[in-house]
Amino acid sequence: MKVETLTIKGSNEWNEDALIMNESVRLFGVLDGATSLRPFRGPNGETGGYLASQLVKRELERLAASDLDSVPLHSAVLRANARLREEMAEHGIDVARKEDLWTTGVAAVRIGENNIEYAQAGDCMIAAFYKDGSIRTVSYDQVDHIDQQTKRMWEDGVKQGMTTREQLRKLVEPTILYNKRTMNTLDGYAVLSGEPELAEFLEYGRISRIQLSGLLIVTDGLFLPAGYELSEAERTAGMETLVRLVRDKSLRGYAEWLIDLEESDPECQRYPRFKKSDDKTGVLLTFE
């Protein structure tokens, strides 16, 4: 098995993404931390999103084969979520207030001899590609319905004459606050937030390795930006287009191409997004 990985800090102070690499049990994945809306800083200035993704990374990377023989991957993720709640409480966070919570999305896989076990929350994504050239999206972007709403507001702000990220960010902040309150509810999205309700909304399962040639696991910082020109077929294909670009350019080559695209639009006018460059983390697994 060939493993290609990357994690690149975006334009914010901390890289709130994290890469999961537990090669001893063939467990790989990505995490996308999100800072609480109420400001919090750790002892070294860390954001809550950074602390959340790093904590879950540690919890999953220290798992041994004996752990996963008795505990499925999704149960290990839920255990990490419970540990996150404990960590926040130790730092004086009111875990009953959603806007105070440190959070992280996750997409993780465990490679077995005959199948792939997976767990996913948020908008971290998993795609599988096969020997016949077909591509399958394994996970579901649970945040997309929220992102579409805020991006429409962003586009409306541009049309109204707003020319800076700061102006546009202020426009959408009330909606971001409301959406934060829908975490781990039917109206919102699943995310590791320390909330026990995650157990009802975490997605997980198993796919067969029959004719499987590889997997791509990414955080949303590697998504093609809204507004990027695609053919109708490419737009409909979704993750298939991303997989083809990564396989054509390599994971790092694609990330560098995407960063150049973002640099060409520093005020996020052409490609609506909340920051010039989001953190980017990915794993490309190829079975040889």
How would you explain this protein's 3D organization?
It is a single chain. With 288 residues, the protein is an alpha+beta fold. The model has no long low-confidence stretch (mean pLDDT 89). The strands form two sheets. Strands 1-10-9-6-7 form a five-stranded antiparallel β-sheet, covered by helices on one side. 36% of the residues lie in helices and 23% in strands. The protein has nine helices and ten strands.
Terminal Cα span: 6 Å
List the uncertain runs. none
Helical residue percent band:
25-40%
What number is the mean pLDDT? Answer: 89
Number of strands: 10
Number of helices: 9
The computed structural class is alpha+beta
Shape: globular
H/E topology pattern: EEEHHHEEEEHHHEEHHHE
Summary, kept brief:
The protein has nine helices and ten strands. The chain is of the alpha+beta class and 288 residues long.
Which secondary structure elements does this structure contain, and how are they paired or packed?
Blueprint: E1 2-8, E2 17-22, E3 27-34, H1 48-61, H2 65-70, H3 73-90, E4 103-111, E5 115-121, E6 125-130, E7 135-137, H4 144-159, H5 165-180, H6 198-201, E8 203-208, E9 212-218, H7 232-237, H8 239-249, H9 251-263, E10 280-286
Antiparallel strand pairs: 1-10, 2-3, 3-4, 4-5, 5-8, 6-7, 6-9, 9-10
Helix pairs in contact: 1-3, 4-5, 8-9
Notable characteristics:
single chain; five-stranded antiparallel beta sheet; 9 helices
